[in-house]
TrEMBL record:
Record keyword Flavoprotein present: yes
Domain Acyl-CoA dehydrogenase/oxidase N-terminal span(s) in chain numbering: 39-111
Sequence similarity: Belongs to the acyl-CoA dehydrogenase family.
Lineage of source species: Bacteria, Pseudomonadati, Pseudomonadota, Alphaproteobacteria, Hyphomicrobiales
Keyword Transferase: no
GO molecular function, one term: acyl-CoA dehydrogenase activity
Protein name (record): Acyl-CoA dehydrogenase
Length: 516
């Protein structure tokens, strides 16, 4: 090692120790402040506790990974997601605010140095000027091909027209990163991201969505009526807005996984506390062998999610972004297992778990959206399955498995799936689960992503999940079995035709159709 390399290595180690010490102090201080807030009442009011925004701003949490010269904390990704998980253990809505602002919207602005007064905008954002991310549309969801909002480019101006739904922070935001289809004489017709001032003429915040969970954070419909902004506020000069959106959503998946971890940990904590006091006959619930085993599996699931997040933070691209395939797998596993654990914990508490006065009911509701945010489970699994099977992307998946020392796992999956129809939805979902659980097993077996004593047991749990998955392999399903499902649904719809024509269901349908 050269003298320069030795000095540089020592400098980096000192930097990391300083960052770790600073993050630990920040973590402790944040926990202390969040402990004083009443998030249950905030959920009932559908509004944050009045002091939450100032607490997050005071701690610098609106600039988690933003460079210090722009007013941010410049935290490593691992430290940032630790703070997001900690916040989610108190309230998933509050953590969602941090993910939308820090991982979705703000990076798009940071990647566009040509924006007038960019440094001033980012500085304000790190101090609490919230930023929203407007991608979702009624007829498109988050699918870029179907986005209809238009950005008419003429001269040095851009006019935005269209409608966005389910936009978190919309009515509280200072800036909105909006994605639309470019049009005009010199436009390429591609997706573009445009930075829009919340107060811009023609921009209206209309419907407030009454969501099942995340009741503390506001989510609105946005109406753009010829909203005019300078062309310099187009975030991607090459009109590759989807590249910016995809990069942000990839970071967002890691953020959602961190939210799931925090909620999962709180659910276990609450249920274990109850089980330690509640008696079943002569024993406390926690001493029951079945319940012991159940809690043991919950903790192992938590260990797997922690290790997957740690791996996502370490395995980053040359641009510093998490690996897209590992981030998707981590988000799938965290959100699915968070929902499972929350459900099990509600069941353990019985009627008390179902009571809104207990924190588990809130966790249960909030956890449900995590399987949808930043890509529904099925969409991500289909994408992972397609990448595993496609010749164009197979090497990317192979390299990822190789990076965690699991090339043999990848080879076995390819061998198992050889000859199957790559366009079959069931095959793609199955292949996605093989990829997700295969990566989880590899991460747990690697030993470098988890310092837990139960890492081996967690790897065994994943192996068990893989074995269960293989019993549902599409290779074992005959054409007759697959056709039976279609016939069953057809029969049901015919039998239920009278009920579906009832006034109540018709009214429900008419309310739903505006989103389809």
């Amino acid at each position: 090692m050269t003298m320069y390399a030795q000095v540089y290595s020592q400098f980096r180690e000192a930097q990391e120790r300083t960052a770790e010490g600073r993050a630990a102090a920040l973590y402790s201080s944040l926990i202390s402040d969040l402990s004083q807030l009443n998030f249950a009442d905030a959920d009932d009011r559908r509004a944050f506790p009045p002091t939450l925004h100032s607490i997050l701003a005071r701690h610098g949490l609106f600039g988690l990974t933003t460079p210090g010269e722009h007013g941010g904390l410049a935290l490593p990704l691992q430290e940032a997601i630790n703070l997001i998980s900690a916040t989610a253990s108190f309230d998933v809505s509050a953590a969602s605010t941090l993910v939308i602002h820090n991982f979705l919207a703000l990076p798009c602005i940071q990647a566009a140095p040509h924006i007038p007064e960019q440094k001033h905008i980012i500085w304000g954002a790190t101090r609490g000027d919230l930023c929203a991310f407007a991608l979702t549309e009624p007829g498109a969801g988050s699918a870029p091909r179907h986005i209809e909002a238009s950005a008419l480019m003429r001269g040095d101006k851009v006019r935005i027209s269209g409608r966005k739904i389910w936009i978190g922070l919309a009515d509280w935001a200072r800036w909105i990163v909006c994605f639309a289809r470019a049009s005009g004489p010199d436009a390429k017709g591609r997706l573009v991201g445009v930075l829009v001032d919340r107060q811009a003429p023609g921009l209206k915040v209309t419907h407030e969505h009454r969501t099942l969970g995340l009741r503390g954070i506001i989510q609105n419909t946005l109406e753009f009526h010829d909203v005019e902004v300078p062309r310099s506020y187009v975030l991607s000069r090459d009109q590759d807005g989807w590249g910016a959106a995809a990069s942000s959503m990839n970071r967002g998946r890691v953020g959602v996984a961190a939210m799931g971890l925090g909620a999962l940990e709180r659910a276990i904590q609450v249920a274990a506390s109850y089980a330690s006091h509640r008696r079943l006959g002569k024993l406390h619930m926690i001493e029951n062998s079945y319940i012991k085993q159940l809690f043991g599996q919950m903790v192992l699931r938590r260990e797997v999610v922690k290790a997957m997040l740690a791996a996502s933070c370490r395995l980053v691209s040359a641009q510093g972004a998490p690996n897209v395939h590992l981030a998707s797998a981590t988000k799938v596993l965290s959100s699915e297992w968070c929902g499972l654990v929350a459900d099990q914990c509600v069941q353990l508490l019985g009627g008390r778990g179902y009571d809104e006065g207990a924190p588990l009911a809130k966790i249960y509701r909030d956890a449900r959206i995590l399987r949808i945010f930043e890509g529904p489970t099925e969409a991500l699994l289909s994408h992972l399955g397609r990448c595993l099977l496609s010749k164009a992307t197979r090497d990317e998946i192979a390299n990822l498995f190789r990076s965690v020392g699991a090339a043999s796992v990848h080879a076995a999956a390819i061998d198992e799936l050889s000859g199957l129809n790559e366009t079959d939805g069931a095959v793609l979902i199955y292949a996605g689960w093989l990829t997700t659980l295969g990566l989880a097993k590899a991460v747990m077996s690697a030993g470098c992503f988890s310092a837990s004593d139960c890492a081996a047991a967690a790897a065994d749990l994943v192996s068990s999940e893989l074995a269960t998955l293989r019993t549902r392999s599409p290779t074992r399903q005959s054409v007759e079995v697959r056709d039976r499902a279609s016939r069953t649904l057809t029969t049901f719809l015919e039998d239920a035709a009278c009920s579906i024509r009832s006034p109540v269901l018709t009214d429900d349908y008419l309310r739903l159709v505006q989103y389809v």
